[in-house]
Amino acid sequence: MTSNQQLFEAELHFLPSAPPVQLHERLKTSGDLLGRGNGTVRGGALQGRVHWSIFEVQGPICETTIVGVITTDDGATVEFATRGYGVVPDPNQPHLWDMPAVVRFWTESPAYQWLTTTLARWDGTFDMNRGVIRRIINRDEQMGH
After folding, report:
1. What is the Cα gyration radius of the chain?
2. What is the rounded CA–CA span in Å between residue 83 and residue 55?
3. CB–CB of 68/50 below 8 Å?
4. Using CA atoms, how far apart are residues 45 and 19, in angstroms rounded to an integer?
5. What is the SS3 assignment for 109?
6. Total count of domains within the chain
7. Which ranges of the chain have pLDDT less than 50?
8. Which of 19, 33, 55, 142 is 20 to 30 A distant from 67 in Cα terms?
9. What is the pTM of this model?
């Protein structure tokens, strides 16, 4: 049996003039660069600022990859990458997208090393009119241990 633990909430804002994020070599992105920007993460596990880029393979259900770097309020650096999908659930509101994904983390920081073995689930939306992606990031935990 599993339960969810919320790691943090993220609010990502598109900034066309922001430079694309460059992460370590082992990360492969697919698709075309769709956008980039900055934002914030807030929660019990992480708090800080984030710089990110999103890549997309277009289709009826778009394949998405978001890569980024979180700079925590205590000065640590945490890299992340998502693999997910984007779909418009309501054709009457084509500017609102559902964007579920999984996320993986990398860091050298001892305080956040536990994230390197965490595979988390991102549940979120993208509002094209506002240029904002909102996500809640959860990890599943085994119960009874």
Report:
1. 15
2. 10
3. yes
4. 27
5. coil
6. 1
7. 1-2, 142-145
8. 142
9. 0.86
